[in-house]
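Structure (tokenized):
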């Protein structure tokens, strides 16, 4: 990765009229903002579906898209909705927050109208047929899974009322396909809307010199189409329930560790198949993104395995992962790929060796570097390397204002001295200046810090359920002075995108 910079902000956090950020006009305007400030990258969170808890890291599918991101105005332009379909509908009660429960109620009827009008149009059946062919590796299974899930009252796969459906009895599935035909079509067409709108937006970004950094969670949900259709990929019992689950051990941030609940992979099976599913998953990811950040990279060297049924992550154990064999297989099949490794948290020598062997850039978090006032932290900026991606903080960390407020006086003094903080300079300006000055080839600023927002704008608090993933930028948040400061830093520290489009 060349010396450059970009902004981290998920699609859901964009402003707009439909209660959540979408692939609509505001997304195109955000790309224009990136171009104006000479950025190179737009980093987003996973685009896959969200489930209970609204986390993009807990999805019903490793491939299917989040239909909350479909823009209604674009469906009006396409003729599948009329403006009257949107009138009188309440999508949110606050411009700066996503109300997922409200959207769950209000979006579906509108999308059902759009699907019906699409299917009634002359081009609908032709477009759907082509889409079904293009996405044949996953679309039918996903549409059936979601239709059955809704049929069984949105219960998790393992709790469905019909065991034959859980175990994919073919006679039972044939009957359900006929019974749920309308719902299956709905899920197929809304996926078509998602992929059409995203590919148009990505094409606009790329044409303007902006590359998309996407995000791939290491694990998939126990309540997912992959567990339903390919249980051999995971360590499951005969009822497709995980026998062990993923998480991370107790650390300085949590006395009980983190209990994620995802099923652990059957790595022996993956090795026997030449990591075929992983190659497929990476390949599908690069159809969506230009660069790919792989979450929890340490899990490929070794991972924390917790027996199913445990209430905390304390009683887990470290188990060896696939190591470099996985990435050698991916490289052999797909060639060199622009992958970023999320190597945060507990990183031992084994994880460091895997990162070195894979030669992917790792991540550095400025906030982590200042807790130790001796300056000996592995995250202190003066020890960064060029082959890294630096952040003030990620979606899992506090925004700069909240982080600084929670430091003690000695730590704050250390931050101010180390960064040569100037009189009258806000802490967000200080941290952004320090970020852009690092030797790391890539600097990614969170949009909350660019906007100098308070602690309440944090995106996620790990190991908590509820109240996360809801922050949104409002239309009036971005001030000309903030845009000017970002451009100044980008040019001063030689990170400007000098593409002809700028």
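Design, position by position:
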């Amino acid at each position: 990765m060349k010396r450059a910079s970009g902004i981290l902000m998920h699609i859901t956090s964009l402003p707009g009229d439909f209660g959540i950020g979408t692939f609509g006009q505001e997304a195109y305007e955000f790309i224009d903002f990136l171009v104006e400030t000479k950025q190179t990258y737009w980093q987003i969170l996973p685009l896959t579906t969200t489930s209970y808890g609204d986390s993009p890291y807990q999805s019903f599918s490793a491939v299917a898209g989040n239909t909350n991101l479909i823009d209604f105005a674009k469906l009006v332009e396409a003729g599948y909705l009329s403006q009257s379909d949107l009138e009188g509908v309440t999508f949110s009660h606050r411009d700066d927050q996503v109300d997922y429960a409200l959207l769950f109620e209000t979006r579906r009827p509108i999308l059902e109208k759009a699907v019906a009008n699409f299917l009634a149009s002359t081009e609908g059946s032709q477009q759907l047929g082509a889409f079904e062919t293009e996405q044949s590796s996953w679309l039918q299974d996903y549409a059936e899974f979601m239709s059955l899930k809704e049929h069984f009252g949105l219960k998790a796969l393992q709790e469905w009322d019909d065991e034959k459906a859980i175990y994919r009895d073919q006679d039972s599935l044939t009957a359900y396909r006929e019974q749920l035909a309308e719902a299956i079509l709905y899920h197929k067409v809304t996926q078509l809307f998602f992929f059409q709108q995203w590919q148009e937006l990505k094409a606009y970004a790329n044409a303007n010199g902006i590359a998309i950094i996407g995000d791939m969670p290491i694990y998939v949900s126990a309540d997912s189409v992959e567990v339903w259709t390919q249980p051999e990929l995971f360590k499951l019992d005969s009822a497709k329930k995980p026998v062990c689950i993923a998480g991370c051990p107790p650390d300085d941030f949590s006395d009980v560790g983190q209990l994620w609940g995802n099923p652990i992979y059957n790595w022996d099976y993956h090795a026997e198949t030449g990591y075929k599913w992983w190659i497929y998953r990476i390949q599908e990811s690069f159809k969506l993104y230009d660069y790919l950040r792989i979450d929890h990279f340490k899990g490929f060297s070794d991972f924390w395995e917790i027996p199913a049924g445990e209430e905390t992550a304390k009683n887990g154990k470290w188990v060896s992962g696939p190591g470099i064999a996985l990435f050698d297989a991916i490289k052999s099949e797909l060639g060199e790929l622009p992958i970023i490794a999320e190597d945060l948290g507990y990183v031992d020598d084994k994880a460091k060796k895997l990162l070195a062997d894979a030669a992917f850039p790792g991540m550095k978090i400025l906030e982590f570097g200042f807790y130790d006032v001796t300056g000996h932290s592995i995250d202190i900026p003066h020890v960064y390397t060029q082959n890294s991606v630096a952040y003030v903080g990620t979606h899992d960390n506090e925004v700069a204002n909240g982080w600084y407020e929670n430091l003690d006086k000695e730590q704050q003094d250390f931050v101010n001295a180390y960064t040569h903080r100037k009189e009258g300079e806000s802490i967000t300006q200080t941290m952004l200046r320090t970020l852009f000055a690092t030797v790391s080839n890539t600097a990614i600023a969170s949009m909350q810090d660019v906007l100098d927002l308070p602690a309440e704008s944090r995106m996620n608090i790990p190991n908590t359920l509820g109240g996360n993933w809801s922050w949104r930028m409002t239309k009036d948040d971005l001030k000309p002075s903030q845009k000017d400061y970002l451009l100044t830093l980008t040019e001063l520290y030689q990170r400007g995108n000098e593409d002809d489009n700028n």
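Reviewer-requested clarification: The mean pLDDT is 96. The first helix runs from residue 25 to 36.
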